[in-house]
Design brief:
With 424 residues, the chain is mainly alpha-helical. The chain contains 20 helices and four strands. The longest helix has 22 residues. The radius of gyration is 25 Å and the shape is elongated. Bound molecules: heme C (4 copies).
Length: 424
């Protein structure tokens, strides 16, 4: 499928004020079109939540009446792709919570009912907001020119008016909006490219930061191609990526122990797709050597495999760091939760929430009960407690310690250690 690239090339990255580069519009359209056409059940991801279903939820729950994504949607609330996209699970939950009072007021003003989210819907929406950052790297052709020179691509490849004859011309990659096709071709050609580099004494290119996306932007700008259309690639799918990861045997060395190969959960934490792509490339030679030594063939990628694999690796960072229950206990007190949610405090025992549900369930319970809590708080003239970054995951870790295993002793109550005296 070919769609027009909204009349422009992606010459610059987001300007930091929420505006989105025009060439990016093609991707947005693709995202909109494809996800509507895609069956929601397509491969339940191993990661909690399904970003494709989450996209639909975002429309159905009318989040989009107030929030825009990449400039499409309402303006009453913040632009989501700037405000929160790419944050890890508990950071997102914390942000939801911090902003609920104003959201409730806005929803009331418009006369809407509060859009409740069951745990699955909550998981889907959160994973969608995380997923969005996969596309947050349109690249910058000016920086790309610098990277192209620094990494000496020009000494072997033709591009536009530059001529070279060792490798194939790179112009054709200009038809894509994202850099994954380029990265995939580079990976597949890795061993041949390395031979040429050793032969010509060129250093093996090491990518950093946005290099990959920036070179892609340069190729889009300068590459010879028949039209300015963008070939729409299938959306990267983390579920399919998990299968690629298994099928290519990545887990043989990356077993999570960090003994044979780095623990990829740590490597990919807080990294963008472009950074992960660069990381993969930078280590490809060392990995190729290791694979050779073990008699493993160097894996080749086709179709959307590389894009899917990157999406899978990107999602390894979604869970974020584990919280600390002791710190969580302090948060529970400091943020005032304990005042109402202890025995006799008049609010539900949160041990029940921890027992009943998983972590998306806690997020869903907080969201669904927020209007009632908002009212209770207003009556008591209390102000809405806001979380600092990181606090929500500690709080969740604390509440988790109250979850009752089947057949275990009755529920202790958070905020009441030592046990509170019964109310008189
Ligand atoms: C009636 C309008 C309205 C609707 C509907 C709405 N929001 Fe909001 N939202 C807002 C406003 C206004 C804010 C900013 C509140 C503030 O500044 O504290 C906000 C803030 C947020 C934030 C925090 C952004 C930040 O800067 O950290 C997130 C996340 C969010 N909304 C998600 C959602 C989701 C998901 C839905 C749908 C389930 C939704 N919103 C529905 C108006 C709305
Ligand atoms: C020392 C020469 C050399 C340098 C420097 C070099 N390459 Fe290559 N490259 C090759 C060779 C040789 C091949 C394998 C032959 C081929 O497929 O073009 C190749 C293959 C490729 C391919 C696969 C082409 C295809 O159509 O499948 C891509 C993409 C690529 N290189 C990109 C780059 C980029 C981007 C840079 C700079 C970061 C770079 N190369 C630097 C020599 C080089
Ligand atoms: C034969 C063992 C082996 C296999 C198979 C393997 N890797 Fe690696 N991987 C390594 C080693 C060893 C390193 C560290 C290399 C170095 O120091 O440059 C590494 C490094 C990496 C890194 C960089 C991590 C960091 O923190 O710097 C990434 C990302 C990565 N591998 C992803 C993959 C993926 C994806 C696959 C499957 C396509 C894969 N690896 C298959 C051994 C392997
Ligand atoms: C002013 C009192 C008050 C404070 C402070 C308060 N809550 Fe609540 N909370 C309530 C009330 C009342 C309900 C029950 C609302 C309902 O039934 O809809 C509730 C419900 C909840 C629920 C849903 C419980 C269930 O059984 O589904 C969660 C989760 C929750 N609160 C978490 C928190 C957290 C986390 C904090 C601290 C950041 C907090 N609350 C602070 C009064 C409070």
């Amino acid at each position: 499928m070919i769609t027009p690239a909204a009349g422009s090339d992606s010459r610059g990255a987001s300007d930091g004020h929420g505006r989105v580069p025009a060439g990016f519009a093609a991707l947005v359209l693709a995202l909109a079109a494809l996800t509507v056409g895609m069956s929601a059940g397509e491969g339940a991801p191993p990661h909690e939540g399904n970003p494709f279903r989450g996209r639909q939820q975002f429309e159905e729950k009318r989040c989009s009446t107030c929030h825009s994504i990449w400039g499409h949607g309402g303006t009453l609330g913040p632009e989501i792709s700037v405000a929160v996209a790419g944050k890890s699970f508990y950071e997102l939950v914390g942000d939801f919570w911090n902003h609920t009072p104003q959201m409730i007021d806005q929803v009331n003003k418009l006369g809407y009912p509060w859009p409740t989210l069951d745990p699955t819907e909550m998981a889907d929406i959160l994973s969608y907001l995380y997923y969005l950052r996969l596309f947050d790297e349109p690249g910058n052709a000016v920086r790309g020119r610098e990277a192209y020179a620094r990494l000496q691509c020009a000494s072997c490849h033709s591009l536009g008016t530059r001529n070279a004859s060792v490798g194939r011309p790179l112009d054709g990659f200009g038809q894509y909006a994202s850099s994954t096709a380029l990265a995939q071709a580079m990976w597949n050609a890795g061993p041949r490219m390395q031979q040429a580099q050793v032969h010509t004494g060129t250093p093996i290119p090491q990518f950093s930061g946005h290099d990959m996306a920036d070179i892609q932007a340069l190729i889009r700008l300068e590459g010879h191609r028949p039209g300015r259309d963008v070939s729409v690639q299938p959306l990267p799918n983390p579920t399919r990526g998990a299968a690629v990861y298994r099928n290519k045997g990545c887990g043989t060395c990356h077993d999570g122990s960090g003994r044979v190969a780095p623990d990829l959960t740590q490597s990919t934490l807080s990294k963008t797709a472009s950074e992960i792509t660069g990381l993969l490339w930078n280590h490809s030679y060392a990995m190729g050597a290791r694979m050779g030594a073990q008699g493993m063939p160097f894996p080749q990628f086709s179709d959307s495999e590389m894009a899917d694999l990157i999406a899978h690796l990107y999602f390894l960072g979604y869970t974020g760091k584990k919280g600390d229950p002791k710190t969580g206990e302090t948060v529970f007190g400091r943020r005032g939760c304990a005042a109402c949610h202890k025995a006799g405090g008049g609010a539900p025992n949160l041990a029940a929430v921890a027992t009943r549900t998983d972590r998306a369930g806690l997020a869903s319970a907080m969201w669904n009960h927020a209007p009632q809590m908002h009212r209770t708080m207003a009556e008591r003239a209390a102000f809405w407690p806001k979380f600092e970054p990181g606090e929500m995951r500690h709080l969740a870790a604390y509440l988790e310690t109250f979850a009752v295993k089947p057949g275990a002793k009755p529920v202790r109550q958070p905020g009441a250690t030592p046990p509170a005296r019964p109310a008189k």
